[in-house]
Specification:
There is one protein chain. This protein has 96 residues and is an all-alpha fold. The protein has 3 helices and no strands. It starts with a helix and ends with a helix.
């Protein structure tokens, strides 16, 4: 029984460590997302100053193609595309 408890305790410690690492990664993702939004604001200001449209389909397709290629087979292309569509929609909102 003591061995089973040790194994369970170790598993719980491992799980907490993994969750802690995920939390750190989430914080970095959020930090990068906020930096991306700040840059999007600058892009929006440039577009307004130069009478350019906020939405450019070719650019969005270029970004989606790039991220699909970047994840390769490590993630579903549809999933990364959904994530980036949300990210780009937020970017378009701050550009307006």
């Amino acid at each position: 029984m003591k061995t089973k408890n040790k194994i369970e305790n170790q598993a719980n410690e491992d799980l907490e460590l993994y969750r802690s690492l995920l939390c750190e990664i989430d914080e970095k993702i959020i930090e990068l997302f906020l930096k991306r939004l700040e840059l999007s604001k600058k892009i929006g200001a440039y577009k307004k100053a130069n009478n350019l449209p906020i939405f450019v389909l070719a650019q969005e397709e270029k970004v989606l193609s790039r991220v699909r290629h970047a994840v390769g087979t490590k993630m579903s292309p549809g999933s990364i595309e959904e994530i980036y569509k949300i990210i780009m929609n937020e970017s378009k909102k701050v550009q307006k």
